[in-house]
UniProtKB/TrEMBL annotation:
Taxonomic lineage from the root: Eukaryota, Fungi, Dikarya, Ascomycota, Pezizomycotina
SMART domains: ACTIN
Protein localization: Cytoplasm
Protein name: Actin-like protein ARP6
Keyword tRNA-binding: no
Native organism: Lecanosticta acicola
Predominant subcellular localization, coarse grouping: cytoplasm
Top-rank lineage group of the source organism: Eukaryota
GO CC entries: cytoplasm; nucleus
InterPro entries, A to Z: Actin (IPR004000), ATPase_NBD (IPR043129)
Length: 451
């Protein structure tokens, strides 16, 4: 594999079993990378969220790589290429460009010397060996990091503060031991992963994956909005509409009731739309308004209508009705779009049935929800209600969302890194990799925590 353009000469490898001076945690998600250095008392504020993509604007013909997207002023008709597909890094040339911009750009606060840095890199569960080998080559041969621990993303949640404990991260001493039992629901961009963790270790026979994530929901919303406005090139705007306007119905009965309320009858049906559910989404024009926003629906105005806005500026208004709750509903009833899969609650039950019944209670009492797709209002309440309806009354069911669901994995890794003895036992040094090769590296990782 060719050397990184950002590396002039190869540096001598650090001695075996020697940790470097600082540790960088890379939660390498499909939509964003959550990255930052571990500190004595880490908090989500120490973590940066970086767009994991290469994007090109069709209007100003500018290409944005990773964190450069923060400087983009016009997201209309933005073409986006992502190095991660279905949770796995499949385009290392693209990922390398994003990493280089993050690690070597003088403007980046994460600029560092990889030779003097330990890297904790997350990956999707059950990653193919070829992709794991590519990751090791990129880390040790291209960027020449001093040490690496490649770990399943869900596992690091065991070191993050428990959402069931008050004031669990209020500045007191960081605990560097994992929570004993945790059932992690990681609703990400590519999929939703169910992972039971015992003392930070995944119980692999019970891990389950629901092939619905933020990307599926955005595409579904885009298809629905296309009925009233051409949105097929507006992935970014559709994602913002999803984030700003969508919510999860409390239960299937309320879902059906809301559908009735937003159904506009025909000539023989006098029903009118309940405007309390519909919102008007003001689309950005990228001149006066950089990001759209939702506001109460005005029934007198139609879709796509330009009218006078604040300051005498025209605006484009898009009514959003049943899309608000039918899009997130896919997470709970995938059969709505013909998918032959259970929803999240059903997938959790599949996971539990792969475990002895004696383990059900500690896991059901510690269901933790993370991931950007879990940020919909009503998500936790609906999941807990759906689980309770499937479980005997004798069981205690507790579902809670992490304080920062997007950065919880990163936070767990940053807290674990404070236990230097544990980290030293988990990492592979560059010297070990160069001496023994990728087969030995894979065998060492295979029996380690989080594999």
């Amino acid at each position: 594999m060719a050397r990184s353009k950002s590396t002039n000469t190869a540096q001598p490898a650090a001695p075996s079993n020697q940790l470097q001076s600082k540790t960088l945690i890379f939660d390498n998600g499909a939509h964003t990378i959550k990255a930052g250095f571990s500190t004595p008392n880490p908090s989500p504020d120490d973590c940066q969220t970086i767009a994991n993509c290469i994007a090109r604007s069709q209007r100003d013909k500018v290409t944005y790589i990773g964190q450069d997207l923060d400087t983009c002023g016009d997201f209309g008709e933005l073409q986006i290429r992502r190095p991660v597909e279905k949770g796995y890094i499949v385009n290392w040339e693209g990922e390398k460009a994003v990493w280089e911009r993050t690690l070597h750009d003088k403007r980046s606060s994460l600029q560092c010397d990889p030779h003097e840095t330990n890297l904790i890199l997350t990956e999707a569960s059950n990653a193919p060996r070829a992709l794991q080998r590519n990751a090791d080559e990129m880390v040790f041969e291209e960027f020449e990091f001093g040490c690496l621990w490649r770990v399943g993303a869900s596992c690091l949640n065991a070191w993050a503060p428990s959402p069931f404990t008050k004031n669990s991260n209020d500045g007191c001493e960081v605990k560097t031991t994992p929570l004993e039992c945790l059932l992690v629901v990681d609703a990400g961009h590519s999929h939703t992963m169910i992972t039971p963790l015992y003392q930070g270790r995944p119980l692999h026979p019970a891990c389950r994956r629901l092939e619905i994530g933020g990307k599926t929901l955005t595409n579904y919303l885009k298809d629905m909005l296309n009925r009233q406005y051409d949105m097929h090139r507006e992935e970014w705007i559709c994602q913002e509409i999803k984030e700003d306007a969508c919510y999860v119905a409390p239960d299937s009965t309320t879902f059906a009731s809301n559908l009735e309320k937003v159904w506009k009858g025909g000539q023989k049906d006098p029903r009118e739309i309940d405007s309390s559910i519909v919102v008007d989404y003001v689309l950005p024009d990228y001149e006066q308004l950089k990001r759209g926003f939702a506001r109460p629906h005005d029934p007198s105005k139609g879709a796509k209508l330009r009218r006078l806005g604040i300051g005498g500026q025209s605006e484009m208004v898009l009514p959003v009705g049943n899309e608000r709750f039918t899009v997130p509903e896919l997470l709970f009833t995938p059969s709505d779009v013909g998918m032959q899969q259970d929803g999240i609650a059903g997938t959790i039950m599949q996971s539990l049935h792969a475990l002895p019944k004696g383990l059900w209670q500690p896991f059901l009492a510690n269901v933790v929800v993370v991931g950007g797709t879990s940020k919909f209002p009503g998500f936790v309440e609906r999941l807990e209600a759906d689980l309770r309806s499937r479980i005997d009354e004798d069981y205690l069911v507790r579902v809670a969302k992490a304080a920062d669901p997007l950065k919880n994995v990163w936070l767990g890794g940053a807290r674990l890194a404070q236990n230097e003895d544990l980290l030293k036992s988990l990492v592979v040094t560059r010297a070990e990799y160069l001496e023994h090769g990728d087969l030995w590296t894979r065998r060492k990782f295979a029996g380690r925590l989080g594999r």
